[in-house]
Structures are given as structure tokens and as C-alpha cells.
Amino acid sequence: MTSPYDIEEIFPDDAADPVRLPRRQAGSSSQELAVTLLADYTLRTRAWMPSAAVVALLSESRVSTAAARAAISRLARRGVLEGRRDGRQSSYRLTVAAATFLAVGGSAIVSPADGDPPWDEHWTLVAFSLPQTESAQRRGLRAQLRWMGFAPLYDGLWVSPRDRTDKVRAQLAPFAPGAVTVFRARHVDVRAAGGRAPIDAWDTAAIAAEYESFVRRWSPTPPRMEAGEVAGAEAVRVRTDVMDTYRRLPILDPQLPGRLLPPGWLRGPARKLFVAIYDGLAETAEGHVRAVAARFAVAPPPGIRAHTVAQLAAGLPRSG
After folding, report:
1. Residue in 218, 283, 284, 280 with CA at minimum distance from that of residue 249
2. Mean pLDDT of 3-14
3. 178 and 247 share a domain?
4. Among the listed ranges 20-34, 73-87, 128-142, 281-295, which one has the minimum average pLDDT value?
5. What angle (nearest 5°) sits at the alpha carbon of residue 108, between those of residues 289 and 16?
6. Beta bridge partners of 183
């Protein structure tokens, strides 16, 4: 069974968008790492960072100098970063639009799931019909459905086990006026050969494997932290990498009712592990970022502040 999600739909890269964040890839691009790095330490304040400091920090994550400089330039062209010059020194920071997008998206990604609320066995279905010529509208509509937890049962029929009618009404109207139908219904199992049940819209085995991979990769890290073995550049690199890895999981996880999930679902353990690493390294990593930034500035840049998972989930009110 092929994967039920298309990562390019979740993060479309249309030229019409005012802020075009890096398109998701199988691995992490230098642009993605740069955005994660700046968001992790300047999202609340939009602090200016010397470009040389950003390059130096990225080089500690095995990004070449040329690739780091190219990433900064491309992010500025995309509207993610804005720059300024002070003599021979150039500095960059997140634009207001990018910081807002990242704060809202970050809150949605790291907010804990609301347990396993009762399910009435009804599904929300969204049917739509858009001509192939309106490809940008189709991508935008499908991306919005992904963000709301829907998956395609068939090409033009998307499903969710949750009552999303209010969200659908608010979010989909601009995409396809007159071309969308929304309804709530129960599934009738007709036992037809080759028939598809709504749960078949998700490859739960593949998503479970993603959780298992995350837990397997990161479980050795907390003991190393407790032993004081993760410091300086490694603390920043680990904190950036664990965020970059974890942020994909809540997007892929459809938050299905517990009875529809396979046993041993690792959503909770994966989140607990992520929080332990991300929050546990915040102070150490912030100190290293400050030190690197100070090497390339006349005075230590103000506003470099690491945030915790709880602060990001709460929406990160601007300060400083």
C-alpha cells in the first residue's frame, strides 16, 4: 500500500504565497535547518543574527559554508528572512509573516493530543470537484484538508473521523466556492470485494513505523544528557535535529480514535521523548548560540532566547 500522504501537498510551494517556506524533502535541506535554527532561538523576538553566525551554526550541523550562504539568500528571496547591513556586516531575521506562520504552525504541531475523546462512529466527508487546469487551487485545497486531519479515500472524497464541519466551513470556502460538499455519515460495511473502508485512507502501519523509528533513534539521548555528554555545538545540533524530525510526526498522525489504531501506538512515548530532549537542552543550546553570535557582532545580539515545548504550544507571545 502506498503512503496516504503527499508531503508536497502538506507544504505547497506556490509562487503566489507571500511566504514560501522550504518544501519538505525526505531528508533535511540546509534551508529547513536554517529556518528551524532561527525559529528555535529568535521566534519570540525576531532578533537579528549576523549572517556569519548563522553560517557558523549551520556548519556545526554539517552544512557547507557555500550551502549555508545559499540557503540564507534563498530564504530572503522567499520572504522568510529579511536582511540589513551595518558596514561590512550583514544580519538577518525572520520576517513578521514567517514568524507568525511558524508560531501558529509550531503551536499546532507540538500541542498535546486531547486524549481519546468519545467517537460517535460518524465520519466527516468532503467531496470536491476542480478541473485539472486549476492545479494551484487543487493543491491548496488538498493541503488545507491535510492540515485539518483529512485523508483521501478516493481522489475527490476525503474523510476524517472527527466532526470538522466548523473548520471546513471556515477554511475551505476561499478555495473552491460552489465546488465542495460536506456531510457527516456512518460507514456501512457491504463486504464487497475490493471495497474500501474509511480507515483505509490511512496507512497506519507506515505511520506506526515512523513513531518506532523516532523512538529508536532518540532513546539513547536522554541518558547522555544526564551524564553531561551533550553540550555546546552538539546541544544545538541535537535540539535542532530532534525538532526537525519530530515535527513531521503530528502532521502524519491522523489522531484517529483509539479503537481504530493498531496496538502499541507510540504517539505518547514519542512526544515525551521529544519534550525531554528539546526542553532539557534549551539552556545549554541557547548559551552556545549566544556565544557564536557574539563572535561575529560588535556587541552580543539581544533577543536570543530558547523556548520550551509548552511555550511554543501556548502560542509564543512576542516579547523584547
Report:
1. 218
2. 40
3. no
4. 20-34
5. 85
6. 125
Nearest to 203 by CA among 258, 151, 146: 151
Residues 6+ apart with CB under 8 A from 111: 313
* Alpha-carbon torsion (129, 132, 136, 140), positive or negative: positive
CB-based contacts of 115: which residues, under 8 Å, 6+ apart? none
Q: Is 132 helix (H, G, I), strand (E, B) or coil?
A: coil
Within this chain, do residues 15 and 97 fall inside the same structural domain, yes or no? Answer: yes
Identify whether 14 is part of a domain.
yes
Q: In what order do the strands lie in the sheet with 49-50?
A: 49-50, 89-94, 81-86
Residue 28 is assigned to a structural domain of this protein: yes
Q: Does residue 155 have a pLDDT over 80?
A: yes
314 belongs to a structural domain: no
User: What angle, rounded to 10 degrees, do the helices at 282-295 and 232-246 form?
Assistant: 120
Q: How confident is the model at residue 180 (pLDDT cuts 50, 70, 90)?
A: confident
Overall domain count for the chain: 3
pLDDT of residue 7: 36
Containing 214, the helix (H) or strand (E) segment is helix 204-218
Q: Of the candidates 54, 81, 110, which is a domain's last residue?
A: 110
